[in-house]
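Researcher: Let's do a round of design. I'm pasting the structure tokens now; please hold your answer until I've finished.
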């Protein structure tokens, strides 16, 4: 990372960062975190939206495609593309819903559960790196504060807002 002090556009000018508030800092750290997570996932040949789907199915086995589409805020046709890819990679399987033959229930495969465990490891490594400047108590307080902000903003727990942009 390049520090602002190390950038010298002109010999007579010393750069000063502009004043910023909490919203900018949350956005800045969030963008940095998202990029770092994406880079780490690339080692597994996954994108963040794949990881999010696997995480959701790991917590909610048997979720229907329709319910997942509504939860993520993704058009069903877009979700089908993601699910098709995950199925081709043998990470998920679609099972007929016993109560509705037109519907599928989504489940992780054994390989999917293994990949989900690896995603968990990558996530914990990223969190250790991101919050190395904080002690355990400060990290917990930050998590609590951010959770309160997310709840107040009515952000769906466990769902990244970026799905709405896909």
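Researcher: That's everything. Go ahead.
Model: Designed sequence:
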């Amino acid at each position: 990372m390049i520090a602002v002090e190390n950038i010298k556009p002109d010999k007579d000018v010393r750069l000063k960062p502009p004043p910023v508030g909490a919203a900018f800092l949350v956005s800045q750290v969030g963008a940095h975190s998202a990029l770092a997570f994406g880079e780490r996932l690339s080692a597994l040949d996954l994108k963040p939206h794949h990881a999010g789907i696997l995480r959701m199915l790991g917590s909610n086995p048997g979720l229907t495609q329709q319910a997942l589409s509504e939860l993520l805020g993704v058009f069903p046709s877009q979700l089908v593309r993601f699910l098709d890819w995950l199925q081709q990679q043998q990470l998920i399987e679609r099972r007929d819903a016993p109560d509705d033959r037109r519907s599928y229930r989504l489940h992780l495969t054994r390989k999917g559960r293994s990949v989900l465990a690896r995603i968990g490891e990558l996530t914990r490594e990223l969190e250790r790196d991101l919050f190395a400047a904080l002690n355990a108590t400060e990290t917990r307080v930050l998590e609590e504060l951010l959770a309160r902000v997310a709840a107040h903003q009515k952000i769906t727990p466990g769902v990244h807002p970026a799905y709405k942009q896909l």
